[in-house]
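Sanity check

After download, print the first record. It should look like this:
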Amino acid sequence: MGNNTFIILFLFISFGLCSQDSIRTEDLRPFSYPFDLAKGQLSGEGAEILRTALSQSDIVMLGNNSRDKMESDLAITIAEILNDNEFKNVLIETGPYSAELAYSVGKNSSDIVNEFKSLNRAYSNVRGDLVYTPIPDFKNLEAANFAKYLIEENWNIGGFGTESWTGFKMMSDHLYKNLPPYHQETYKKLYDQSMSTLDSLYNQLTSQTNEDIFNLANGLKESKVYQEYLNSMLLFDINRDHIKSLKFSIEYWWMYGSKQFYEKNKLNSRNNKRHLKYNLEKWNFDFQKDKLLVKMWHGHLAKGKTGNGFYGIGNTLLELAEYNDRQSLTIAIFRRYYEEGEEVKDLIEESPFIHSRELLRLGQKNNWVLIDLRPFNQFFHWGSYHIDTGLRNLMNRYDMIIIPKTDKKTDYNY
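Expected structure tokens:
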């Protein structure tokens, strides 16, 4: 190709790109639908679209954002709709050991909410105004009610993802409690020394910076007493899977503290899929007839590659659904307005690090908003509009975006 031809082609392409219209908020508005959620009941145009989509789906992926009140309330309501549509399996991002503990606490109690409160009080770490609960996804009252509903309706509950660093003591303690009384006596001294080691390391925490988390995880890796304790608990079959999950978590958070972000994300992506396989096999899950709800951070549920460059759980389940001629639905929650003290703040104004501003501007203070990306994709994807990277990513990764009305702090359950 001659130089003149190349220049003409370049100018033609550049002119074509410059002549395209950029997508504005007003272009997106026809695909957004307000609704309300009050006392567990959905109402409004967006509610009908959401209810219909849920009823027509076999695998529903609900992508969390903040663990605050509004999305917790929505999770319970969605679970109720799915329960009416023969869903009985849920995976939550708590780590498999934590999920098993949470399930056993609730299953064996007539007062599930207070049992979760007792668990939080027993193993929480208090640092000034901050309280680090052992299972962060169950620190609030709404989450306890979510678990209560699922347990009472006889759902299969499984966990995947990485155990939180805040739960190391809880998990280590239950390894010992799993032993018969006569074996507990044998390992009592080693158990006490290990709990003291954990208390000492937790007491050194000032916040949750990379350095703080590194010191905690590294301290456990280098502690001869604690490693001897894990090796002793490993002698009992009941503890083997739990210790595997705990050791993975310690390694993951050590990598986080070391700022080995790519390596830890790669490790976590593969581990999530192992847990997915484990739970589905345990339940004898049949893709031809069974249905599944997955509730975890929205980034892991993206169709295609996640933001950190890996094919995550969302993409795996999308492909499995299509392979088995079933229907999946991927929903991400992004908040805009939120309360801070007596003030209502706007994330668009407060943070430069947000997803597409054009889309988030559709959020309203007093209404929930559902943005249906399915017809939106069909209309815009191959059109003459210029689409910024952030918006294109959202279009490709999710079927729906839900923006809650002004978000409120949760009612903590500790």
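If your output differs, re-run the checksum step. Summary of this record's structure: The chain has a mean pLDDT of 90.
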